[in-house]
Here is the input.
Amino acid sequence: MGRRSDARERLLEAAVELVTERGYHGVGVQELCNAAGVKPGSFYYLFPSKQQLVITVLEKTWENTMTYIIEPIQTSSLNPLQKIEEFFMRTYHLHAHRSNEGKPVLGCTFALLGGELATEDPVINEKVREIFSFITNYFTEWISGAYEQGLITISKEDIPDTAKALLCFTEGTSMMARINNQADIFAKMTASALRLVGAK
Here is the structure.
């Protein structure tokens, strides 16, 4: 059981890296197995399909997002606007860590896979939409808190659309960071994110 679990974890780690870097269609099962040091014949014993592996990649990436970004923010004493700022800075530091190791800046796994497979794989698309809904809910919570504390100028009615706009801004920033292989775009765009939500 331990060896099976280890092989599954190695496949998952390889998939997180390769699928995010090259896309769903850019890497095959054989290459994933080679990168993970797993026999190709074991793949379908560990995962019923490549689709299921990618869904697990999305779930693992969301778990990491919660651990390294969302949960530390939620348990902090930061005010709501500072939480938005911290979201961008923590995202920056994660990408900067990769860059400092000589690895490319990959951007957002959710947007990359969702964009690639939006019209092709409804199951993966639904998983991405679910995760984006979670992120939007956190943005809504922070923007609502900022409104209640008088930290922003937007109206209460505009909060839901502003949260969606912040998600779009975040994903656009992620894409530009990937295209330019430049992690510090996240840090540079923090002030713009605060302006987007109407910070005073």
